[in-house]
Q: What sequence folds into this?
C-alpha cells in the first residue's frame, strides 16, 4: 500500500503542475479553461466543483489528467463547439505563437519543477551518488552475460564513448546506451563494443546488476539451512581462502572455481578466527554451496557533495539537462528492435513495484524530479494527442501560414488517442500480468 500511495502522490504532483502549466499560460492569453482535472473523468467524477468559468475535479481513472480549453480539440474529443463561430476567448482564435506557448506550458513547468527540486535537494541534503572510482577500486565483477559480451572480472571502466562517468549508476546506463566502452585490463586499455543483441541480453537477463564491485574477500555472511554449506559446517564469519588447494583473492574467482565442480565433492580451506579449518562439501548441480557472501552496502561507496544554494542552481540545471539527454538516448534504444528494450517499458503499476516499501521523502522528491523530466520528454514527442503533436502542427502553421482544418485536426487527434491508448493498454496489461504471475508463484 505504501508503494501505491507513493506513486499516486508522485503522479498527482506531476499531473497537477503539468496541467497548471497549460492553465496559467491559457489564462495569460485570456483563453477560457472549461475543465481542470486530476486523473480522467470518463463517465463520472469523484469530486468536482465549478469556480468561475472552470470546473475543477478529480476523475476516477488515474491515467494523467487534463485541462479542457474552449475552442480546442483535445482528450475530451468534444467537437461540438468547433461547429460554432470562433469566439475571442477560444484557443483557436489566438495567434499561433500564443497557442504554441500554451501547448508547451506543461512541459516547461515539468522542467522547472525538476530544476527546483534538485536545487533544494542539493542545497539541503547534498548531491549524492555512488562513486565510480570508489566502487571499482578492485576492478569490477561481471555477470555471465556481461562476460559473454566481452567484459572480464577485474576490468575498470575508463570511459564510454570517450567520457568518464563519475556516478556508477549512470555509468552502467552509459554502457547500455553507448557504442564503445574503454576498460583497463591488466594494465592495458581495451575497447569493448556491445552489439544491440548483447545489450538486449543484458537488459533481459541481468539488467543493471550485470556489473558490480569486485569483493576482495570471500566471507560467509549467512548460511542457507540444510544447504551443502550448512551440511559442510560453514559458519557466519568464515573466510574461505582456497578450494581444492587453489588459493584465490576475489569472490568472483571463487565463483568461477566452484562453477567447474557442479555435483562434485570439494575441499575448502577456511579461516575461522585465527584457526584454519578444512571442510568437505558437495556442490549442487547449479554450482552453488548455499551461502551468501558478505558485501559492502552501496552507501559505503556513496559521495555526498555539500553544495551552497548558489552552487546548487547550476548543478540542478546540469542534472535536469543530463536527464533529458538520457531520456532521448533511452528512447532511441527502445526504437532499436534487436535490443528488445521495448519489452521493458513500464506503466505506473510496474514503476510502483520498484519503489521502496517505506516512505522516504528524500527518495520521493528525487524520483519526482526524475519522473518530471521523463514526463516532459514524453510530452515533447511529436505524437498526435500529446503536447508535442499539437506543437508540431502549430510550428508547421507558423512556417507555412496554413492552419490544419478542424475536421483534419479531429481525425489526427483520434488517431493519436488510439495510439496512446493502445500503448497504455499494452504496458498496463504486461505489468498487471506480471503482478498476477508473481503473486501466484
A:
Amino acid at each position: 500500500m505504501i508503494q501505491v500511495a507513493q506513486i499516486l502522490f508522485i503522479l498527482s504532483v506531476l499531473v497537477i503542475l503539468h496541467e497548471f502549466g497549460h492553465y496559467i499560460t491559457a489564462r495569460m492569453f485570456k483563453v477560457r479553461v472549461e475543465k481542470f482535472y486530476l486523473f480522467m473523468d470518463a463517465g463520472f467524477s469523484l469530486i468536482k466543483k465549478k469556480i468561475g468559468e472552470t470546473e475543477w475535479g478529480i476523475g476516477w481513472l488515474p491515467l494523467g489528467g487534463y485541462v479542457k480549453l474552449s475552442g480546442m480539440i483535445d482528450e475530451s474529443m468534444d467537437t461540438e463547439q468547433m461547429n460554432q463561430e470562433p469566439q475571442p476567448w477560444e484557443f483557436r482564435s489566438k495567434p499561433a505563437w500564443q497557442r504554441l506557448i500554451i501547448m508547451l506550458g506543461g512541459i516547461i513547468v515539468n522542467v522547472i519543477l525538476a530544476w527546483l527540486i534538485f536545487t533544494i535537494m542539493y542545497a539541503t541534503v547534498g548531491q549524492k551518488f555512488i562513486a565510480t572510482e570508489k566502487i571499482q577500486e578492485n576492478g569490477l565483477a561481471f555477470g555471465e552475460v556481461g562476460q559473454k559480451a566481452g567484459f572480464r572480472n577485474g576490468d575498470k571502466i575508463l570511459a564510454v564513448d570517450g567520457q568518464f562517468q563519475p556516478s556508477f549508476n549512470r555509468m552502467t546506463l552509459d554502457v547500455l546506451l553507448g557504442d564503445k566502452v574503454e576498460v583497463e585490463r591488466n594494465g592495458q586499455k581495451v575497447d569493448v563494443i556491445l552489439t544491440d543483441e548483447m545489450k538486449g541480453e543484458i537488459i533481459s537477463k541481468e539488467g543493471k546488476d550485470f556489473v558490480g564491485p569486485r569483493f576482495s574477500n570471500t566471507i560467509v555472511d549467512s548460511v542457507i539451512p540444510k544447504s551443502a554449506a550448512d551440511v559442510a559446517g560453514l559458519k557466519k564469519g568464515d573466510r574461505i581462502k582456497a578450494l581444492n588447494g587453489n588459493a584465490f583473492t576475489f569472490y568472483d574467482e571463487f565463483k568461477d572455481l566452484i562453477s567447474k565442480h557442479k555435483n562434485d565433492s570439494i575441499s575448502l580451506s577456511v579461516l575461522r578466527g585465527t584457526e584454519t579449518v578444512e571442510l568437505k562439501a558437495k556442490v549442487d548441480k547449479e554450482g552453488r554451496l548455499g551461502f551468501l557472501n558478505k558485501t559492502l552496502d552501496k552507501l559505503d561507496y556513496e559521495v555526498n557533495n555539500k553544495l551552497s544554494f548558489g552552487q546548487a542552481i547550476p548543478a540542478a540545471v546540469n542534472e535536469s539537462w543530463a536527464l533529458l539527454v538520457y531520456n532521448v538516448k533511452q528512447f532511441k534504444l527502445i526504437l532499436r528492435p534487436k535490443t528488445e528494450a521495448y519489452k521493458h517499458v513500464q506503466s505506473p503499476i510496474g514503476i510502483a513495484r520498484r519503489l521502496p516499501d517505506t516512505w522516504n521523502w528524500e527518495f520521493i522528491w528525487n524520483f519526482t524530479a526524475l519522473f518530471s523530466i521523463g514526463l516532459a520528454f514524453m510530452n515533447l514527442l511529436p505524437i498526435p494527442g500529446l503536447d508535442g503533436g499539437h506543437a508540431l502542427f502549430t510550428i508547421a502553421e507558423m512556417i507555412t501560414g496554413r492552419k490544419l482544418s478542424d475536421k483534419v485536426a479531429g481525425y489526427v487527434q483520434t488517431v493519436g488517442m488510439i495510439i496512446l491508448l493502445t500503448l497504455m493498454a499494452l504496458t498496463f496489461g504486461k505489468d498487471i500480468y506480471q503482478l498476477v504471475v508473481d503473486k501466484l508463484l
